[in-house]
Amino acid sequence: MRCSKVLHVEQKIDAPVSTTSQAPAWKQRAVERSTKAAKLRAEQRVERFLDAAQAIIMEKRTTDFTVQEVVEQSRQSLRSFYQHFDGKHELLLALFEDAMQRSADQIRAAASGQSDPLDRLKVAVHLLFELSRPGPTAQRPLFTEFAPQLLLSHPTEVKIAHAPLLTLFAELMTQAEAAGRLRASIKPRRAAALTMQTVMFVAQSSSVADDEHTHPITSEEAWDFCASGFAAP
Amino acid sequence: MRCSKVLHVEQKIDAPVSTTSQAPAWKQRAVERSTKAAKLRAEQRVERFLDAAQAIIMEKRTTDFTVQEVVEQSRQSLRSFYQHFDGKHELLLALFEDAMQRSADQIRAAASGQSDPLDRLKVAVHLLFELSRPGPTAQRPLFTEFAPQLLLSHPTEVKIAHAPLLTLFAELMTQAEAAGRLRASIKPRRAAALTMQTVMFVAQSSSVADDEHTHPITSEEAWDFCASGFAAP
DNA sequence: GTCGGTGCGAGAATAACATTCTCGGATATC
DNA sequence: GATATCCGAGAATGTTATTCTCGCACCGAC
Fold this sequence. Notes:
Chain A has nine helices and no strands. By secondary structure, chain A is mostly helical.
């Protein structure tokens, strides 16, 4: 169900005060066994919190849950929550990071179905667009939903969370470059960052219907724009 | 100092229950004089709240002010605040709308200095980029700062607030199209929307330094990207 | 088996805000 | 001067996040 690797959370459990190299070996081992067990338990608890939050988000179709709800759903205690997370924001961050990682995986898999480098990029862009748009379509956590919140309070961490996706797009761009399909004047990583941002944010806004005659921007348009820009050749 | 036209706020003062066409004329006039005065006062009050909020934002370099602070700074009362605004979000919206309007004006003025349509667009993009990035540079209210918050809670209103900028870019794009400088396959308004979004959001993220070797994306890169895309011609 | 310690559930206490309500006092209207 | 309206001051309420305090259950040591 959930990624087993625990993200930027965990730590703050095993803080042995004097397990430096001068302690007797048996003591070291004992302490280690103890801390290892503790760490395991901690991971399971963190896991349960994350799953609970996930479940709530899925059910309420929004990221506006309270810590209380998470605690109740996970059948643990508030005390425990704050023992494992620095605050709500860390929980959100963890979920966000997880969602990004999964999305990156999913997109990578989808893109690998194409042989032409530009087709790979195209598939990636379309899928990212779909995954980024809010609304009922989002089976996956509504993963762009809290990005804005976090972007304000913890921009650095958000950037870290973006890393897997950025890496993926950088890979695809590099392949395109190798095939001579990239404009000479642009670096793959740069193109990747710009494309990613554009697609994600445009997708996000595309949910709200322009009340009037104007239709929201589509995945196809976003792709065309990123690929070709707007200026005449 | 501030735009005189009051935005989407005001109203909710003059709600005459029976000023329809069947009331006697003298009464109508009396009521009108009264409501007009009331409206005037209301506008001044709204004005003071907006100015106060602006001042606080400028001073604290963040949009995280409390309603209390605004009330105190404006030397009015909480009661009055809630009589004129539906809540804090309306105040934010008003500020945001105002900031967008001013930015649009500023950009339009700057762009008009160029004669070539693409140069106009280029100037517009660069200025928008500068205005959108947070940090100490922002002499103007940090106007993208609350956009994310509002985008979540009131997407429709945010879209409305974007209108002046969108219109401006649409104008510039249309001029470019008329001069045959736009790709044939793209509609001016679409190009405008895409460019605007891309520039604003990329600028926003560009503030956080990629901790490592990577430099943040520059205004110039954003322009190149929007104008030419990433694919080889 | 009992003792001291530790992990943790339950939930009370605190704090920061937004939002609402209530009370007078000023000012204007008749 | 009586009365209605507006409005400042600030108390009251409600919602969360976050911290604190208790007490119990488990575990290894003696």
